[in-house]
Amino acid sequence: MFKKENRYMTKEIAENLPIEIAILLWDLIDNLTTEKDYLQIFEINPIGLGVVEIVHKQEVPEYEARIYIQNDKIKDKLKIYVIDNVEYRTMMFSNEY
Questions:
Q1: pTM of the prediction?
Q2: Mean pLDDT, residues 12-20
Q3: Is residue 66 part of a domain?
Q4: What local confidence, expressed as pLDDT, does residue 1 receive?
Q5: Nearest Cα to 54, choosing from 67, 64, 63?
Q6: Backbone phi and psi for residue 74, each to the nearest 5 degrees, phi listed first
Q7: Which Gene3D superfamilies match (predicted)?
Q8: Is 35 part of any domain?
Q9: Among 1, 4, 38, 66, which lies 20 to 30 A Cα-Cα from 85?
């Protein structure tokens, strides 16, 4: 699951998420050492002074991790889903699902 080929992002993601954040989210999925669920959830929260908290979750098996990065471009809370349907993987905002 979550092979490196056939990865896509919606137009909304491409236009509104900094590319370095998108790459980081794919890397977080790639480096996940537990079994991967078909749905990866990311909550991105600006917490001040250019610091952003990224919460990475999945339901089965249950997983949650937090990382903190420097990024001045993220101004609002974001929720992103990355879905693997076996043929392709798609990154989208939660409201696009």
A1: 0.95
A2: 97
A3: yes
A4: 78
A5: 67
A6: -85, 115
A7: enterococcus faecalis protein
A8: yes
A9: 66
Domain coverage including residue 35: 7-96
Determine contact, residues 49/67, Cβ cutoff 8 Å: no
**β 51-58/63-70 pair status:** antiparallel
In a domain, 2, yes or no: no
The number of folded domains in the chain is 1
Average pLDDT over residues 14-30: 97
**Residues 32, 94, 54, 5: what is their CA dihedral angle, to the nearest 10 degrees?**
40
Model confidence at 4, pLDDT cuts 50, 70, 90, reads confident
- The alpha carbons of the chain give a radius of gyration, in whole angstroms, of 13
Dihedral angle sign, alpha carbons of residues 87, 89, 94, 95 = negative
In a domain, 1, yes or no: no
What's the CA gap between 45 and 76, in Å, rounded? 7
Q: Is 22 left (phi over 0), alpha (psi -120 to 50) or beta?
A: alpha
Give the strands of the sheet with 7-9, arranged side by side.
7-9, 89-93, 78-84, 39-48, 51-58, 63-70
